[in-house]
Design goal:
two-stranded antiparallel ribbon; 22% strand
Length: 344
């Protein structure tokens, strides 16, 4: 039950952010919305505002904002189809952009409220009985050089890789380590041991440190991490579409709820991380130039700009309807795969 409630809350927040992006940008450029809905299917709640009907619908599989004149001709001067291309482009694009901003917000909360792992040449853990423990290394020690080769050069990731390369290259020969502890510089010598499991020489330490950031560094890190995740996800989506890689790992609502259940059992940090992945996926997938998706609508706007005249609303509506049917068919197929996998 907790998993279902968590899933509904996550889906609701993510869909709300997406549709709110469309709604707010439309208000900004003067395009009125007839309805703002979370969910699909029959209405289970409705509130009539001055200009817009706000509703919650029975099926938690999406949402929509319906604008005056979006799918039909209208005499209203503020109708969607009468707005300039740049205004319509902004309204459509704002949905995925709001998903990206939600990821930034969640990452900011994550960095500000929880200890997060960061690459570092500091020692995070020392393995019991390892050469490092026998030699006297402790968590918190920061290794600065190995065999007179400096590894602490500002780039923590690079420093860790340099350290590992030196250990691997030296084999079981004794190595000299320089490290700092509580502001004091110390040295020691130890002999690495071979790990059959990892097929390399090790001294028995785990690099890294746990940090919690103040609000402004958290915001900066959140933007940087969001950008990195977007690039990674675009590459994964490209491999899926053009190469078919990862096709078996594609999941639908049932599979997502299963993953949410795992996150709930692991704790709030994993739930937040999962929400970040889902909102970024929704933003990126919506930008694919496929009918019924925001990307498909943006593509038709680009065609309109090149032609110098709009497409017939009926034809455009038909294109998006076909796209919607295909998307629903895909969802049914993926959901069927998720359900059958539960019994296999």
């Amino acid at each position: 039950m907790v998993t279902v409630i968590t899933a509904l809350i996550l889906f609701g927040i993510i869909v709300l952010a997406h549709e709110l992006g469309h709604f707010l940008s439309a208000n900004l450029v003067g395009i009125p919305a007839e309805e703002f809905a979370i969910g699909m299917g029959p209405k289970i709640y409705q509130h009539e505002g001055k200009k817009t009907i706000f509703s919650i619908r029975a099926l938690p599989i999406g949402g929509f904002v319906r604008f005056i004149g979006e799918e039909e001709q209208s005499d209203d001067a503020r109708a969607f189809h009468k707005a300039s291309i740049w205004k319509r482009f902004l309204v459509i694009l704002s949905g995925p952009l709001m998903n990206f901003m939600l990821a930034v917000l969640l990452l900011t909360i994550f960095f500000a409220c929880f200890d997060t792992y960061q690459p570092s040449t500091k020692i995070l853990e020392v393995v019991d009985g390892s050469p490092a423990m026998v030699a006297g290394l402790e968590p918190g020690d920061k290794i600065t050089s190995v065999n007179n080769i400096t590894i602490n050069q500002g780039d923590e990731n690079k420093g860790v890789e340099i350290f590992k390369d030196i250990i691997s290259r030296e084999g079981n020969n004794p190595i000299n380590i320089v490290y700092t502890r509580e502001g004091q510089t110390k040295t020691l010598e130890l002999k690495p041991e071979y790990s059959p499991e990892r097929q390399t020489y090790e001294i028995g330490i785990v690099f890294g440190e746990l940090r919690r950031y103040s609000i402004f560094p958290s915001i900066k890190l959140a933007f940087m991490q969001t950008g990195k995740l977007i690039i990674i996800m675009i590459q994964l989506v490209g491999s899926l579409i053009f190469k078919g890689q990862g096709l078996r790992e594609v999941v639908g609502p049932v599979g997502i709820i299963g993953e949410i259940g795992k996150a709930v059992r692991s704790g709030i940090q994993d739930v937040i991380n999962f929400a970040i992945v889902i909102t970024l996926n929704l933003g990126i997938m919506n930008l694919i130039p496929f009918p019924a998706l925001d990307g498909g609508k943006l593509a038709l706007l680009a065609v309109e700009g090149l032609r110098g005249r709009p497409m017939d609303p009926k034809k455009e509506g038909y294109i998006h309807f076909v796209g919607f049917v295909l998307l629903m068919l895909l969802m049914v197929i993926v959901t069927f795969k998720d359900v059958t996998s539960l019994w296999s």
